Amino acid sequence: MSATFYAVGVGPGDPELITLKALRVLGECHFIGIPTDNPSASHAYRILLQAAPELAHKPILKLPTPMTRDSAILDKSYADNAVLVADTLLQGLSVAAITIGDPSVYAAIHTLLEKIRALGHPTQMIPGVPSFCAAACTLQESLGTRDEAIHILPGSYPVAESLTLTGTKVILKSAGSYPQIRKLLHQNNLQASLVVRCGHPEEKVYPDVKDFPEETEYLSLIIAK
After folding, report:
1. What pTM value is reported for the model?
2. 3-state secondary structure of 224
3. Neighbouring residues of 54: CB distance < 8 A, sequence distance ≥ 6
4. CA distance 153 to 162
5. 146: which DSSP letter?
6. pLDDT of residue 1 exceeding 60
7. Neighbours of 74 (CB within 10 A)
8. Residue 142 and residue 136: Cα distance in Å, rounded?
9. pLDDT (tens digit, 9 = 90+) per residue, 43-86?
C-alpha cells in the first residue's frame, strides 16, 4: 500500500502560527514538497524553516507551479507533479507538500491533491491559519459579527461587482488588479485596510484607504467594510 500525500498549510508568514499538527506531520514525512524549483524562493519553505530549523535536513520534492492563468500550462504542471508524487508514494515514502495560509483557500496545492487522490493514493489536508484571519487580528478588527456576511474574493480576477455586496469583503492576492480596486474603494467611499506580507518581518499595514500606496505586491490583501 502506498504512503500518504499531505497538503499542509504553514500559515501566512509568522512562524509561530504554524500548528503543532503541521509540524508533527512534516517531521514524520519522508519528503517535503515545495511549489518551486528553488527552495530559497519559496515563502512557505522559509516560514517552515524559521519555525523548525531542524527540518532543513529533510529531503525536498520539487513541485513547481507556474504563476500563470494558462489552463494548458497549469494542467500539465499538475499532471507532471502528480505523477512524481505518485511514484514516490508507491515506494512507501510519504510526502508533505507545503503552502502558505491554508490549503483550502485558493491554493494550487488542492488541485494537486485532487489529481493524486484520483490516481488512487491516500491524501490528507492539514489546516493552516488563513492570511485574512491573521490580518484581521493584526488590525484588531472583527471580520464579521452577528448577522454580518463575510465575502472572500480572489483579487486576481474582476471584483468590481462584488464590492457592492453587504458585509465584509476580503480581497486576496490583490496586486494584479490593485489600481482598479483602490479606485473603486475610493469611489464607493468604502472603509478599507491593506496588509502586505502579513506576519512577515517586512509586514506593512495601511489601516485607511486614503493612505494606500500607489502600488502593491502579490502577498497583499484588502479588508473592506
Report:
1. 0.92
2. strand
3. none
4. 8
5. T
6. no
7. 16
8. 6
9. 999 999 999 999 999 999 999 988 777 788 888 888 999 999 99
